[in-house]
Amino acid sequence: MEIFVEKQPHCLATLRVTVPSSTVKSALEKLAGEYRKAAKLPGFRPGKAPVAVVARKYKEAIAEEAVKDLLRSAVDRAAKENNLTVLNAFDLKHGEVGEKDLDLTVQLTLEPDFTLPDIAQLDLEIMEDVVTDEHVHGHLSMLLERMAEFSDVKDRAVQIGDYAVLDFDATVEGKPLGEVCPEAPSTMKGGEGLWVIMDEESMWPGFCAGIAGAREGEERAVEVTVPEDFAVASLRGKKIAHKVKLKGIKAKKLPELTDEVAQKIAGRSADELRKTIRERLDASAAEQTERRKRTAALEHLVKTCEFEVPASFVVGEARRVVKEIVEAEQMRGLSDEDLLSKKDEIFQHAQMGAQFRVKADFILTRLAREHKIEATRDELAAHIAGLAQRLNIPMDKLVKQLVKREALGSVGNDVVRDKALDFLASKVKVKKAAPQE
Description:
It is a single chain. The protein is of the alpha+beta class. The chain folds into three domains: 2-110, Alpha-Beta Plaits; 149-253, Roll (Chitinase A, domain 3); 270-431, Trigger factor, domain 2, CATH 1.10.3120. 48% of the residues lie in helices and 19% in strands. The chain contains 14 helices and twelve strands. It has helices at residues 21-38, 51-57, 59-82, 133-144, 177-180, 207-211, 259-266, 270-304, 311-331, 336-341, 343-370, 377-391, 395-404, 408-425, and strands spanning 2-8, 12-19, 86-94, 102-110, 125-127, 149-152, 163-172, 175-176, 190-197, 219-225, 239-253, 429-431. Strands 6, 7, 8, 9, 10 and 11 form a six-stranded antiparallel sheet that branches. Strands 1-2-4-3 form a four-stranded antiparallel sheet. The longest helix is centred in the middle third of the chain and has 35 residues, at 270-304. The termini are far apart.
């Protein structure tokens, strides 16, 4: 068997093979014998038909399978002789399968050729995520919000930070906003007795500023321009006119954290509640630090290791990233029209994300190989159990699906890469924050 490999850019290569007629003949005869064992032909008992008859009957199928077997053998030999890792083969072309030498030509996708830096010399440092008293206080405040009390304000005008009780309508060029744009947020379409938090985040920019200083019973006209980055594309840049009547002003007051209040919130004392919150926030901060270690280490290697990645892998990954982005945006309530308007932005983001992911996968795979990192049976089982839980299907059903799709190996590779990333992150130093005074 004559083998010639011609490397090309972008992790591609052309493999040309000439298979001697004797090797082709042996492959065809071997397969004909295997087909004979299961063949059921008229006039012959099962498995007893002459090989020549079977060969004529299943000529095309036998030839196709012979080509696959010969190609597999050629690819394995080419990889071994040329020190290549072949990821896949495609665009197979070959001559007639018969009594002559057989010429095969196929395109190969190769694993990128690059050298990892010395991981032991990795010099990266991140700041530790620290929980402060302010974080604990902020979390406590969110819990106390459940027991907040609202009181009427009669002796002053409405101001930023208050809750304004409003009657208002919203129009675009004289038409109700709800008619012009049904998908607009319901709270912005207007109504009666609506409670609006007086800050720039709760409504259109400029709306709350337009009614600040008004007193109960006062009416105002407020016009705003919708920002160009607003989620609903059809409203961007539009002017919205509002007729607003201030029906009332409410001030919010949070209760003090006493043992009695803490008992109502969480069934424990105030000190115990503070301690529990800090412990949970500390655990969350530790997890965040670990995530940032992984991110910092991986971003460093992706930036440091310069090599091309297979374009087909990037295309496939980009499709997955686009699907993830679209599903996330739809969960946020974005319409098909808005998604279409962001098409170029989504594709650009997906392309960049896919390039990073594919390159990172090759780096982690190489890291695992060089440091002999493998997945144990228990680790693989735990990973599949986690997948089954997220997909909300029985684990045994998922395993059957993975086996059917021949995807168990891919799942195992995911576990190995994740372990390699943990190993990489362990080399990142964490700088402790100065203690609180």
